[in-house]
Design a protein that fits this description.
The complex is a heterotrimer of chains A (about 220), B (about 650) and C (about 300). With about 220 residues, chain A is mainly alpha-helical. Chain A contains 7 helices and no strands. Chain B is mainly alpha-helical. The longest helix of chain B is centred in the last third of the chain and has 37 residues. Chain B is globular and about 100 Å long. In chain B, strand 1 and strand 2 form a beta hairpin. In chain B, helix 8 packs antiparallel against helix 9. Helices cover about 70% and strands about 0% of the residues of chain C. In chain C, helix 1 crosses helix 9 and helix 1 packs parallel to helix 10. The chains are: A mainly alpha (about 220), B mainly alpha (about 650), C mainly alpha (about 300). Chains in contact: A-B, A-C, B-C. At the B-C interface, helix 16, helix 17, helix 22, strand 3 and helix 23 of B face strand 1, helix 3, helix 4, helix 5 and helix 9 of C.
Chain lengths: ~220, ~650, ~300
């Protein structure tokens, strides 16, 4: 089981790297949906011995919302906004990938410094993977101009937090977890609407050009 | 030891004689060159003995300076750095005999030969001095004499500017060395190096290390203190560039390594710092080299790159030293030191080759040259050998030292704790990238200059230089091949040298590396056998067939022209675009504005990142500060007297307190 | 050093061009064609060996030396990689560096030979080749450093059999090396060996002007390069039963190479060539996969 978790964590990390290095929005959305499904399964795999209804609910919610609902919403956003081609980022793709490696290194180091969830965590890769995912999300929010990409960043960040939650499923109350999920859900929803309107008003999605609104 | 002094005396007397007859170009050249060659040959005997037997000789005389004595020490470390100095200087003198003759009617060559010999002697004294005052005097004489050599063609505006930049950078570097030696001296109570041994607190040691890194690093040309290097080296005459790039900047490395012997066991972060600077210098050095259009400037940037490789070796060695990994420590230092010698050989060779190109074609613009290998076959062959060597490819000497540094890094990556081994991955990735880019840069340099068709009249009318110039290049090329093939034997001289630094010769570890290198030699030998066999097979196959000649395949275009060849700029363009973040190359394009042929221009210019990003702002700030300070300079004497009085009064009150 | 390791070299010399045939056959069957004969590469080499040569008037001896140096370098490289866990004749700690740098020598002289023709097309190919290989080099060496860390061995002959393929780290390294393999051997998605336009080629355009025995040497050395780098990957994937009788591990390795060739054929059939700007990205991604594997091994 440990090795299964390990492989899942590696897949999670690889998907982070891919998100940093890839330029096509559609591919990125597919990867994020893959991440969501992966994390849904992860919740089940970690607690295979003691499945509780609560756990199954979290897993199912994550699996469905992140694996299907968000991608559908985002794809609709793309379709309506008509921006499916890549958009020049603030930070280049190669630099992003290298930054991702640096974030992984930092996370590994933090993981050894933060033995928070030592008990029952199964493998030591979970905390670094969670942190890296969190950082990746933040990085994408900062480093990409496109509003949709920033939206993706929020979801990825939530994935990181969720992974943390999995490790400490005993410690974090269900409500917190659901609250976060809801936050992101609303965020995606609002962003979806906002993107639609930004696009209608300005014919583009470059969020850094929103500063013209200052007047 | 006394032989070294005799040799240095011969060199300096030769220099003075040349100065005395400075108006007679041929005579002073003869005197200067001959004394240098004789002196170098004599000096090599004790140097080689010291390296071979690993012994130490000293000369210690009383003198008038306080806190110390006239103290010279020839230990394996000094001898190791003296070896390339004497070899390369001797060869450069032979080469210079012919090269400088071209200026016979325009310049007082005796003056240049005097400074040339003085530079050589001062470099030798830098490596021998074991007393702070003596060291700093030699250090300054070295800087001054090379300044006058850089300013050889002082009538050109660019050369004057280059030599001033060099001068200022040298003094800035020395400004960091003085406080360092003061800390050492005040702690030891003496300015002799022997007293300096390892009595510093860790805070003082850190300060001294940083000061040494900046001070010596400026001379060595590490990023970002390298700004003078790509300006000054191309400005000097080629034999001088060869000496400056091949051995003079190594005195900076020598100073750094010598300082390490005073500081004792380093903390881990020193190694990380050296490694990081090494990787940055190496990668950026080669990138900027790729962006250059001038052959000598390109070579100068490669000196920055190779200093980077040396620092990577030193950094890896120091990380191994601090972590108690003898094999990493020994091989890191061994690789770095071997690279000092190797770089002296191939960089000397390349600069002499560039000089020969300039001598023959009167042009160093890459994009104006081409096809020179047909006009200058020997220069071409030797330049090719230098190019393969500097790219770190087997079976030449560049590969040997890089291989040793790689082995140190791999050993570290395999066995150190996680954070240190991650830094080793940095070293491996850095070396690999540097190697790949250096190969790119030298395929460009050699390919554009020597291959294809001539791109200008200059290149068309080029002619081969005389044997006076090709012979030294041949000797250096042979040395490159020799060390490349006998790396296993050459590395055996290292143990006493690293014994001086690490306190332990690590003979066992070096022998392991020697065994690996023996296998490399075996591989190289097989390679050469295959080379001969296959070329034999090729000529056998072709001997009975028709061998025709025709134009290059031009994809159907009917009138190919030499101007249609790929240029150096276009060859480097994809790489430069990829690394635009660092290079910030400025492009100036004028496109033809109609469908038919019209005027078009394309121009690129790459400004040095250190100069633009660091030095210019700092100097501008200092300049504006002093501009505002101009108010105090009234220019009337009584005001100055007032200043003096006020100062005295303040001092008086300060003491009365 | 055993006699079997020499037999392995001879096997390499004999079978290397076959891989090219297998790749082309796979591509042909994907496209629904009959395709060239399996042994086409042999026919090409033999035919070229029997011909005379034509040289451009621009070229010098460098142009003639290029193919010879390339073939010699790759022949030495052949003596460095193990076949199916049987140590190569030239096995020593650090041999992986000699391998990488011998391929560097080969590239250096191929590029010089291309520049010697003075053709702008060949210069273009040369310029791309040096860039891509410079970025591929770190990926290759870091990947092998990761394996060295995992096994504690610095020699290809001993570390490849000692690595366990079924650990995620080694899978990552294999993925990274596969990218390097495709790049170094000028396969799709990096370079299209069968394109009809000189402007878009990388490796093939550099050898446009070679003819006769020289061209035969070039064809043969690229086949050998495919074989050598393929063996590194196959050595990582297929476990070699220790102490087993000679034919078993060697035939496993050769089957592995054939499989690799088929995979390359499939990749070439399914993928298009990447845009030139994208290629460095893919190579950096491969490098970070290697670095990632190394970080995982460090834990």
């Amino acid at each position: 089981m440990d090795s299964t978790i390990e492989i899942m964590m590696i897949l999670l990390l690889l998907s982070d790297m891919a998100l940093l290095g890839l330029s096509r929005l559609r591919t990125c959305i597919s990867i994020v949906s893959f991440q969501g499904m992966l994390l849904g399964l992860l919740a089940l795999v970690t607690q295979l011995g003691s499945l509780t209804p609560r756990l199954i609910m979290i897993a199912a919610a994550s699996f469905i919302i992140k694996g299907f609902v968000f991608p559908i919403l985002l794809r609709r956003g793309i379709r309506e906004a008509g921006t499916q081609h890549e958009i020049e980022p603030f930070v280049g793709y190669i630099t992003s990938v290298i930054a991702g490696l640096a974030m992984l290194g930092v996370s590994l180091w933090l993981g050894t410094k933060l033995p928070l969830f030592a008990a029952g965590s199964g493998t030591s890769l979970i905390v670094p993977a969670a942190l890296t995912t969190l950082f990746t999300g933040l990085f994408l929010i900062i480093a990409r101009k496109n509003a949709l990409n920033q939206c993706l960043g929020y979801i990825i960040m939530e994935n990181g937090i969720y992974t943390f939650g999995i490790v400490s499923v005993v410690e974090i109350p269900l409500l917190v977890e659901l609250g976060i999920l809801l936050d992101v859900f609303v965020a995606v929803f609002v962003m979806g609407i906002a993107i639609y309107h930004i696009n209608r008003e300005f014919d583009h999605l470059d969020s850094d050009r929103l500063n013209v609104l200052k007047g | 030891m006394s032989l070294v002094l005799i040799a240095l005396a011969i060199i300096i007397i030769g220099g003075l004689l040349a100065l005395a007859v400075c108006k007679n170009g041929s005579l002073s050249t003869l005197l200067g060159a001959a004394s240098t060659v004789v002196g170098c040959i004599i000096a090599l005997i004790p140097v080689l003995q010291t390296i071979y037997y690993g012994d130490t000789t000293i000369i210690r005389l009383a003198w008038n300076m306080p806190y110390g004595s006239f103290f010279l020490k020839l230990d394996p470390l000094s001898a190791f750095f003296l070896l390339p100095i004497f070899v390369l200087s001797g060869l450069a003198a032979i080469y210079g005999r012919e090269y400088m003759m071209a200026y016979r009617d325009k310049k007082w060559l005796g003056l240049s030969w005097f400074f040339f010999n003085l530079l050589l002697v001062s470099m030798a004294f830098v490596c021998l001095a074991h007393n702070t005052v003596l060291f700093l005097i030699s250090w300054e004489v070295m800087a001054l004499s090379s300044f006058f050599l850089v300013a050889f063609e002082y009538e050109k505006e660019a050369v004057r500017k280059a030599s001033w930049i060099y001068m200022v950078a040298s003094y800035l570097g020395t400004a960091f060395l003085l406080p360092m030696f003061l800390i050492f001296g005040s702690e030891a109570g003496s300015l002799d190096f022997d007293g300096f041994v390892q009595g510093l607190s860790s805070g003082e040691a850190n300060i001294c290390f940083i000061l040494a890194l900046v001070g010596f690093g400026t001379k060595a040309g590490i990023m970002p203190f390298h700004v003078w290097l790509p300006v000054a080296h191309p400005a000097a005459p080629s034999p001088v560039s060869a000496i400056m790039s091949g051995v003079m900047i190594k005195t900076g490395i020598y100073g750094l390594v010598r300082t390490l012997t005073f500081l004792g066991m380093p903390p881990l972060w020193w190694g990380y710092l050296l490694l990081a600077i090494g990787i940055i210098s190496g990668v950026l050095g080669v990138l900027f080299a790729l962006a250059q259009h001038d052959l000598k400037r390109l070579l100068a940037y490669h000196s920055v790159e190779n200093i980077g490789i040396i620092l990577i070796g030193l950094g890896v060695g120091m990380i191994g030293w601090s972590s108690g990994m003898p094999i990493v420590a020994a091989l890191g230092f061994a690789g770095a030191l071997l690279h000092v010698i190797n770089h002296a050989l191939f960089k000397g060779l390349l600069f002499l080759g560039a000089g020969s190109v300039f001598h023959g074609a009167h042009n160093l613009e890459l994009d104006h040259l081409g096809g020179l290998i047909k006009k200058m076959p020997s220069t071409g062959l030797f330049f090719l050998i230098g190019s393969v060597a500097i790219s770190g490819l087997p079976p030449l000497n560049g590969f040997v030292s890089e291989f040793v540094i790689y082995i140190a890094s791999f050993s570290g990556a395999m066995s150190l704790n996680p954070s240190s081994s991650l830094s080793m991955i940095g070293a491996i990735a850095g070396l690999a990238l540097i190697g790949g880019l250096a190969a790119a840069c030298f395929t460009k340099a050699f390919g554009i200059v020597f291959l294809g068709e001539p791109r200008s009249k200059d290149a068309e009318n080029a002619r081969e230089s005389s044997p006076w110039m090709t012979l030294p290049m041949m000797i250096l090329a042979v040395a490159c091949i020799f060390i490349g093939l006998l790396g296993a034997a050459v590395i055996q001289v290292i143990p006493p040298v690293i014994g001086v630094v690490l306190g332990n010769p690590y003979t066992g570890e070096i022998r392991i590396a020697s065994n690996y290198l023996f296998s490399v030699t075996a591989g190289s030998a097989v390679f050469i056998i295959f080379l001969m066999a296959i070329s034999g097979l090729r000529s056998f196959l072709l001997s009975r067939r028709s061998v025709g000649s025709s134009g290059t395949w031009d994809c159907g275009y009917a009138a190919p022209d030499a101007r249609m060849q790929y240029t150096a700029s276009s060859f480097a363009q994809p790489i430069i675009d990829l690394f635009q973040f660092f290079l910030r190359t400025k492009k100036n394009i004028t496109m033809p504005d109609s469908y038919f042929l019209g005027a078009a221009r394309f121009e690129t210019h790459t400004t040095d990142i250190g100069r633009k990003g660091i030095y210019n702002p700092i100097f501008k700030a200092i300049g504006s500060f002093f501009g505002r300070m101009k108010v105090v300079q009234e220019g009337r004497i009584h005001i100055y007297v007032l200043y003096v009085v006020v100062t005295l009064l303040i001092l008086l009150f300060w003491n009365m307190r | 050093m055993q006699i079997t390791s020499f037999i392995n070299i001879i096997l390499g010399l004999l079978l290397a061009p076959l891989l090219l045939g297998i790749i082309n056959k796979t591509k042909a069957s994907f496209a629904g064609r009959t395709g060239q004969p399996l042994l086409q590469a042999y026919y090409d080499i033999i035919k070229q060996l029997q011909k005379g040569a034509v040289y451009s008037k621009t070229t010098s001896w460098i142009f003639r030396a290029g193919p010879v140096v390339g073939l010699s370098a790759v022949l030495v490289a052949l003596a460095i990689v193990p076949v199916g866990g049987i140590a190569a004749p030239l096995a020593f700690s650090g041999d992986l560096l000699l391998l990488a740098y011998l391929l560097g020598v080969m590239r250096f002289f191929t590029v010089l030979a291309a520049l010697d023709t003075g053709s702008s097309f060949e210069g273009m190919g040369a310029s791309r080749e040096v860039l891509f290989s410079a970025i591929a080099e770190p990926a290759f060496l870091i990947g092998l450093a990761a394996i060295a860390r995992e096994t504690g061995i610095m020699s290809l002959s001993h570390m490849l059999p000692a690595a366990h393929f079924f650990s995620p780290e080694v899978v990552l390294v294999v993925a990274s090396l596969l990218v390097v393999f495709l790049c170094e051997n000028a396969r799709i998605p990096f370079d299209d060996p069968n394109t009809h336009l000189e402007l878009t080629m990388i490796h093939e355009v550099m050898v446009l002007d070679h003819s006769g025995p020289d061209f035969a040497f070039i064809l043969y050395s690229s086949a050998l390069k495919l074989w050598v780098l393929g063996l590194v990957i196959v050595g990582l994937i297929f476990p070699s039963p220790a102490g087993s009788f000679w034919p078993a591990p060697v035939s496993t390795a050769i089957c592995g190479l054939i499989l690799l060739a088929i995979i390359v054929g499939i990749i070439e059939s399914l993928m298009a060539r990447l845009r030139l700007l994208r290629i460095p990205q893919l190579l950096v991604a491969a490098g970070s996969l290697s670095a990632f594997a190394f970080i995982l091994i460090l834990r």
